[in-house]
Design a protein that fits this description.
Elements (H helix, E strand, L loop, with lengths): L3 H4 L4 H7 L12 E2 L10 E7 L9 H16 L8 E7 L4 H13 L4 E3 L7 H10 L4 E2 L6 H5 L3 E2 L4 H15 L4 E7 L8 H10 L3 E8 L7 H7 L6 E4 L3 H14 L4 E5 L5 H6 L2 H5 L1 E4 L14 H10 L10 H17 L8 H10 L34 E7 L4 E10 L12 E3 L3
Helix pairs in contact: 2-7, 3-13, 3-14, 4-5
């Protein structure tokens, strides 16, 4: 298969599933550092992501990383060495992403944590890989992200977030699928990726509905989604448009299944969306943020983020924040046995050698080098070690995630198995 299907949605999955309210800022790169409470030579780590931006902003991911590092440092850091964070707000602008990558090199960071560089991925990967800097917890959105062996993602990346939503509907028995996307240039070619994947799993995408950011009538999109006998709707929109579509669904009450990613939705938002939230199915790489009963390991990141991030409560927290905590946690687990002050080379070697990194019972133990086959996509998707997603529900009060409902987003790809699989987390 050519690279065109993946390149057609470079950045689309990240924008559609992780988007939050953006705000304006200056056009130059900037960086911040956490306060240091541990003693010893600092270990400098970095993060490049759009804290602000016109098209996509992920302030939760940035703030959660700052909070997670502050908590680690307060607990003594890594063998007495504090983490020092160089955080660069790319604003989602290609030229600033490149500036941020150059800053990471000049500041001698030993790794970046929870990156997202969807505007200029090839250039950023070239700069960081050239400097030998590993990227831990990166959100992989582009073929150059998936091809870089120094990128260590404990999810399937942005592209397979979209695939996972579709596979969830197919698992429920929906064979005719509608995909609802933001109206962007890349969205018009999404069929090049999703059509063969759906066909390999015995389903068909019968409608692609593109939602305009200037629209005032969202009921039209719900009507379009029901055409051609569609049985299920993949809703791959940023929060602002998702809310509008959800409200239209509440008004029209269509007799159709619908699923989306839960990453950017808070418990407060789910409550406000009423019947939509309770009828929808959700997927994500991590469990629902509030499901401590089934995943006791969630208690630690929830406590950390509510203590160290100003104004954050469980009801206002998202799964985006959880991924930042997991990146810091994984870094600690791998480097805690390291002697001396880590370097980029030693961090890279340690992660490549690591096996079954304990992820607090939140996701499966992670072996970065255990790369999974993407079937006929393997020529361009070569660097995914953790392609499992959870199925999540909302009962009106909180999210519910069954540990047994963990499925492999790669299992139904062309050239692999013909159906998605389910496994228990360990």
């Amino acid at each position: 298969m050519s690279r065109k299907p993946i390149k057609a949605i470079v950045g689309l999955a990240a924008v559609a599933l992780l988007a939050t309210a953006s705000c304006s800022s200056s056009s130059s790169a900037s960086s911040t550092s956490t306060k240091v409470k541990a003693h010893g030579t600092p270990i400098v780590v970095g993060q490049i992501l759009p804290m602000t931006g016109a098209n996509l902003a992920l302030p939760e991911a940035g703030k959660a990383l700052v909070a997670s590092i502050a908590a680690l440092n307060a607990a003594g850091g890594i063998n007495g060495h504090p983490l020092k964070l160089d955080q660069c707000d790319s604003q989602g602008v290609a030229s600033i992403e490149v500036q941020c990558a150059q800053t990471m090199v000049s500041d001698h960071v030993v790794a970046t944590l929870e990156d997202d560089t969807f505007s200029s991925p090839a250039e950023v990967n070239s700069i960081l890989k050239g400097a030998g800097i590993p990227r831990i917890g990166i959100t992989e959105d582009d073929v150059t992200d998936y091809a870089n062996p120094d990128n260590m993602d404990f999810t399937g990346g942005g592209v397979f977030s979209l695939v996972g939503i579709m596979e969830d509907l197919i698992h429920r028995g929906d064979k005719k699928i509608t995909v609802v996307l933001p109206d962007t240039p890349s969205a018009v070619e999404t069929h090049l990726l999703l059509d063969p994947i759906a066909a390999a799993e015995g389903a068909k995408v019968v409608n692609y509905v593109l939602v305009s950011s200037a629209s005032g009538d969202y009921s039209q999109y719900v009507a379009q989604a029901e055409e051609n006998g569609a049985q299920g709707i993949v809703i791959a929109l940023g929060n602002a448009q998702l809310v509008e579509v959800a409200q239209a669904i509440n008004q029209l009450n269509p007799k159709i299944d619908y699923a989306t990613g839960i990453a950017g939705l808070t418990l407060n938002q789910l409550k406000e969306l009423g019947s939509f939230s309770k009828k929808a199915s959700y997927v994500w790489w991590t469990p629902g943020i509030g499901d401590v009963k089934n995943f006791p390991g969630l208690a630690q990141p929830v406590a950390t983020l509510t203590k160290y991030e100003k104004g954050v409560t469980l009801d206002t927290m998202t799964s985006v924040s959880l991924s930042s905590w997991l990146a810091v946690h994984a870094f600690y687990e791998v480097m805690k046995s390291h002697k001396g002050t880590p370097t980029a080379a030693s961090v890279l070697a340690a992660f490549k050698a690591a096996k079954d990194i304990p992820m607090n019972g939140i996701i499966k133990p992670w072996t970065p080098g255990d790369l999974q086959s993407a079937g006929t996509l393997s020529s361009i998707i070569t660097n995914v070690s953790q392609p499992w997603m959870y199925r999540i529900a909302y009962n009106g009060k909180g999210s519910q995630t069954s540990p047994s409902q963990l499925f492999n987003t790669f299992a139904g790809l062309p050239g692999t198995s013909t159906s998605t699989s389910t496994s228990t987390s360990s």
